[in-house]
Amino acid sequence: MNILVLCTGNSARSILLESILNQDSNGRIRAYSAGSTPSGRVHPQSMTLLDDLGYPTSGLSSQSWDDYAGDDAPEMDIVITVCDSAAAETCPLWPRTGPNPPVQVHWGIPDPAAAAEPDWATAFQTAYDTLSAKAKALMDLPFETMDPTELKTALTKIASV
Question: Which CA distances in Å does 82 have to 56, 92, 100, 155?
């Protein structure tokens, strides 16, 4: 199962969820992350938190969603946006193309990078905890055998976890 996690800057929330899914899914999921306007760097607190929690951080980068739109890109089964619409962030929209378009879902998470620097540790931990709970709910699904409609319904329910 290939999952693309999209956000605007691809420096915090999308990086955290990519790491959680890749590390904790026991090979059932291959996650990628990208941004519509990538910041060009992974937020240092993302790296610190992931490192402290024992997640691999080598190879993590802030990259453009264009990297996943070409013919040579992996075919995505699921696209998850993690922008915070409540904070008026503009979430990228993934074009539904091809014979088997990916299931798309929105899991809005407040941007920990928007916190003042003294509050980063708490803000990033809160984002991680929320994303980790959603990722666990996803990994508890028998997604390999679910049809796209069932999967979309289940992923939408996870948005409220």
Answer: 21, 10, 22, 13
Kindly give, in sequence order, each residue whose CB lies less than 8 Å from that of residue 99, ignoring residues fewer than 6 positions away: none
SS3 27: coil
Cα 117–Cα 119–Cα 120 angle in degrees, nearest 5: 65
Contact by Cβ (8 Å): 10, 62? yes
Tokens of 32: 């990628």
Tens digit of each residue's pLDDT, the chain (161 residues): 999 999 988 999 999 999 999 999 999 999 999 998 888 999 999 999 999 999 999 999 999 988 888 888 899 999 999 987 544 555 666 665 667 889 999 999 999 999 999 999 999 999 999 999 999 999 999 999 999 999 999 999 999 98
Phi, psi angles (nearest 5°) of residue 51: -60, -45
Is 113:45 a contact under the CB 8 Å cutoff? yes
Q: How far apart are CA 103 and CA 11, in angstroms?
A: 23
Residue whose entry in the numeric block shows the structure tokens 């951080």 = 57
Helix, strand and coil content of the chain, in percent to the nearest 5, comes to 40, 15, 45
